[in-house]
Structures are given as structure tokens and as C-alpha cells.
Amino acid sequence: MNMNKENILIEPWITEAATASAELNKYIFKVNKKADKKQIKKAIEELYKVTVLGVRTINIPGKKRTRGRIVGVKSGFKKAIIKIKEGESIDVFSSK
User: Fold this and answer.
1) Would you give the DSSP letter of residue 64?
2) Which residues pair with 9 in a beta bridge?
3) What does DSSP assign to residue 47?
4) 10 to each of 35, 67, 71, 84, how far by Cα in Å?
5) Is-contact 43 57, C-beta < 8 A?
6) Whole-model pTM?
7) pLDDT (tens digit, 9 = 90+) per residue, 81-94?
8) Are 29 and 48 in contact (CB under 8 A)?
9) Alpha-carbon gap, residue 54 to 57, rounded angstroms
């Protein structure tokens, strides 16, 4: 699959838990559903100039939503937990 690094990483996942895990050199990103671990690792290394030690991915399923009598489904997404080398960091609050 041919994807460029801008299409692989959608946005950083910024929550209280994600901010706490940044202290352990783990960063969480929302990524393209079709991206695999090797592509995610390469995109992070090229974009943020860090050494990636590991990538874990999670597929979050869509959720059912009801609005009156109309039932719909929110689309799911994929998250990646990136472990980087000790001493390096990623500034997730700055734009790409």
C-alpha cells in the first residue's frame, strides 16, 4: 500500500491518560485504518526525527447512536501507541 506520512498520521490523541503515558515515552496517535505498524513507525521517525522502539495498534469499533427513532453508527477508528527511545520526546501540541 502506498501512503505518504501525512495520510498515515491523522492527529495526536490528547487525553489525560495519553499525557500521563508521555512521561513513560509512549505517545498515542489516531492513524489511518489501512496503515500497518511498519508504515506508522516510518512516518513517526521521518516526521518527528525520533527512534521508535515499538508500535501497538488498537482498532476502536464504531458506536451505535440514536436520535429519536433514527438509529445510526459513528465510524470507528484506529489508534497507535508509539514507544520511543529514552531521552527523546515528541511535541504533540505543535502542528505538523
Assistant:
1) E
2) 31
3) H
4) 11, 28, 27, 19
5) no
6) 0.85
7) 999 999 998 887 77
8) no
9) 10
